[in-house]
Amino acid sequence: MNPFISYLNTFVELPDEVQRAINDITIHRRLPRGTTLLAHGDVCKEFHFLASGLVRVFYYKSDKDVTAWFAAEKAIASAIDSLFSGRPSMYNIELLEDSEIYSL
Q1: Beta bridge partners of 93
Q2: What domain count does the chain have?
């Protein structure tokens, strides 16, 4: 089963048709360390569930990068403000480890 759906089912039991719908739109990827999932100035179009791996979300301030937060296995990483508003993101999202992700 899709690990993202398993994760959601820990909060609420999803009906089979909902699980199928989520599975149909989920993109499964195995990506290497150093992959950029979102670059500063891009509009975020996905959110990512980490089945395995480690992500760093950061932004630039006075020409220095500042870590906003990390996400590890069984966590979600995205720039939600950009995803919902359609505006360019101030954040960068990079993989710190080889990762397996499920993106929507």
Answers
A1: 38, 57
A2: 1
Q: Which domain holds residue 76?
A: 29-103
In contact, 38 and 79? CB cutoff 8 Å: yes
Instruction: Give per-residue pLDDT as tens, 64-87.
Output: 999 999 999 999 999 999 999 999
Could you report the per-residue pLDDT of 47-66, keeping only the tens digit for each? 999 999 999 999 999 999 99
DSSP 4-59: HHHHHHTTS---HHHHHHHHHH-EEEEE-TT-EEE-TTSBP---EEEEESEEEEEE
Token pair for residue 98? 């080889």
d(CA 71, CA 27): 19
Q: What is the pTM of this model?
A: 0.90
CATH number at residue 95: 2.60.120.10
Tokens linked to 94:
């990079």
